[in-house]
Fold:
Amino acid sequence: MGMKDQFQDKTEQWQQQAKQKAQEGREQAQRGRRGEQDERMRDEESERLRREEQERLDPDYDM
Structure:
């Protein structure tokens, strides 16, 4: 195996590693966005439930 072949093999290995790392980064970013969306939805739902509970327990002064 000549030096040119060694360099070419090494370059291909680095390119493959770079592709794998890029894919892992994209997957991690997607998981992060999904987590933020889930958390935001939970916050909105708990806020809505809190308001409904507060309205239900507040006395009605319009009577």
In short: The two ends are 94 Å apart (CA to CA). The longest helix spans residues 3-57. The chain is about 85% helix and 0% strand.
